[in-house]
Amino acid sequence: MTDTPPRRLRASLTGLVAALIGVGCVVPSLPDGTDAQPPPRAPQSQDPQAGTTGPANTTLDGTDTPEEFRQDVADAQRLTERYWEEQFRAAGRRFQPVSRVITYQRDGEVTCGGQAVPAANAVYCPAGDYIAYDENWSFGAFRQIGDAFVFYLMGHEYAHAVQVRLGLRHTFTIQQELQADCMAGASLGDTVRAGRLLLEKGDLDEFRAGLLAVGDDPDQPWFEQGAHGTPEQRIGSFFRGYERSLSACELGG
């Protein structure tokens, strides 16, 4: 495999809060044999090998066309899958990518184990082994923020797929979500250190400032189903992973 030049992240992350607050990240616990139901229409292909003619190493560049958005999603998926394939191989294990990445536009257009996936969201569905995201909401966030949103979103949802592959179990939703934030940070940080993703000065400070404002409502109990963590917990988890790699994410084994 021949590496292409590194991808550069340049987006201003001002407004990250407004975009990420909607990430509910539904990851239901599903009984064996439960079927997930993707939308009846054919989804846009997000195959990382399809239409990926740009540089493999991504630049968050603040561009805003639908074509650029699709390319960024493909780049984010490809780099994230490459990262996890390498991690699994180093551990002597075989990595299986998610079956597909699909889009939807309305509440209930996608269901996971009989549970409707809400609009303005992105999820990993373990029943169908796919990632789904609201394409209108995601594209709006992309136009406001840039590539940073796409890379965080893909990293976090893919982390949930890896949790399933590793058989990780959590008593509370907040543990699962903070670990996924850490894993997303690790995949991003390690990809930057490998030279496949380039950040410009100030990107991490802006990312930190945005993520500090993202988190659960102050009145939400930490043990409640669906809790993701306080803003401080989420930023701490993400940057522990970014700075220290997977060793910070309590994967066990």
Describe the structure.
- It is built from 7 helices and 7 strands, in the order βααβββββαααβαα.
- It is mainly alpha-helical and 253 residues long.
- Mean pLDDT is 76; it is low at 10-24 and 26-60.
- The radius of gyration is 17 Å and the shape is globular.
- Helix content is 42%, strand content 9%.
- The protein has a 3-stranded mixed β-sheet with strand order 2-6-5.
- It has helices at 16-20, 66-90, 135-145, 147-166, 173-193, 203-212, 231-244; strands spanning 7-9, 100-104, 111-112, 115-116, 122-125, 130-134, 197-199.
- Helix 2 (66-90) packs parallel to helix 4 (147-166).
Radius of gyration: 17 Å
- Average pLDDT level: 76
| Helix-and-strand structural type | mainly alpha
Helix content: 40-55%
How many β strands by DSSP? 7
User: Beta fraction of the residues?
Assistant: 5-15%
Topology of this structure?
Blueprint: E1 7-9, H1 16-20, H2 66-90, E2 100-104, E3 111-112, E4 115-116, E5 122-125, E6 130-134, H3 135-145, H4 147-166, H5 173-193, E7 197-199, H6 203-212, H7 231-244
Parallel strand pairs: 1-7, 2-6
Antiparallel strand pairs: 3-4, 5-6
